[in-house]
Amino acid sequence: MSVERQVVFWALVLGAFGFALHLLGSTVTPFAAGIALGYLLDPLVGRLERLGLNRLGAALIILVAFATAFALALIVVAPILINELIAFVQKFPGYAVKLQALALEEGATLSKKYLGGWIDTLGLRAQFSPDQIQKSLGDFVSQGATWLINALQGLVSGGAAVFGFFSLLVITPVVAFYILIDWERMLAAIDGWLPLDHRDHLRKIAREIDHALAGFIRGQSLVCLFDALWYGIGLTLIGLDFGFLIGVIAGFLSFIPYVGSLVALVLSIAVSLVQGWPSLKLFFLALAVMVSGQFLEGNVISPNLVGGSVGLHPVWLMFALLAFGQLFGFVGLVVAVPAAAVIGVIVRHLIGLYRASPFYLGRAAEERT
Prior knowledge:
Blueprint: H1 3-24, H2 29-50, H3 55-114, H4 116-122, H5 130-156, H6 159-193, H7 199-237, H8 243-253, H9 259-276, H10 281-305, H11 314-355, H12 358-361, H13 363-368
Helix pairs in contact: 2-3, 2-6, 3-5, 3-6, 3-9, 7-8, 7-10, 7-11, 8-9, 9-10
Organism: Roseiarcus fermentans
Pfam families: AI-2E_transport
InterPro entries: AI-2E-like
């Protein structure tokens, strides 16, 4: 079979697989989470195997230890998070009103002091009038409040959400356990399916994909933990209301590049302004916690834990986030970076094949033959 036909065949297979996943929807979520968890914990199982344990015993020890640590963390952290979340939802309207008033008062003062002449020159006095500013801020706050309330209702309401949560808790560990036990046999079976003519090349691609995924998933998981601890503990120590909740939100969303830190920055600044006004001491303390956390993550934590394993330019990374988010929503944002890393590896190899083909070489290929 020619290379072109093989490419078409495997493209159709991948397309059919993607369409099947689309039809199944959230049904595959606990299974995908179990596979990801097994992939994450497999190196630990391998280390225990090298110490003399068999695969079954090593998988049981690692999975039980992980489940125990997760359960203890949930028991300790969940009550605090629930209490802070309830308090935040109750105080959110008051925070929004106070932020709106502060923005209106200070914005009017600053625009009159520094921009008055420019506003009159450009004929924008009507757009910068107090009534217009208040209307714009009111619309922005009401839209933000509506989005937040709808998001919270979507998370906590409906039988499907409850069923999905419990299916994650029950099915994911079971899938991860079988993945850990059968990992080597699965790899051997998949290796046996590879086309014989291209087996070595496909193995090379698989090793590069494994390097990219392992570097990102395992490294970024530790980065998320660092962000949650740094922001949660730091904001709590400076006395910021809901500091622990903001830190956990930042850690959870840090699996999506830029999003976790940005959300934490906006929330911490908003809460510090409302809580500490008219003093700016709390604002600068919260800003110091956020900036120092970003500096450590960008210059110490991420380079050592994640490094350049993903191999994506920042522009392409942002494009992947926007594209996958537009196509698949929040789930798309979560899988954007690893999916883009896989696509990047495949594209680099396809470009290599193209540059070695007559389509690229042209007359040079004829001269070689």
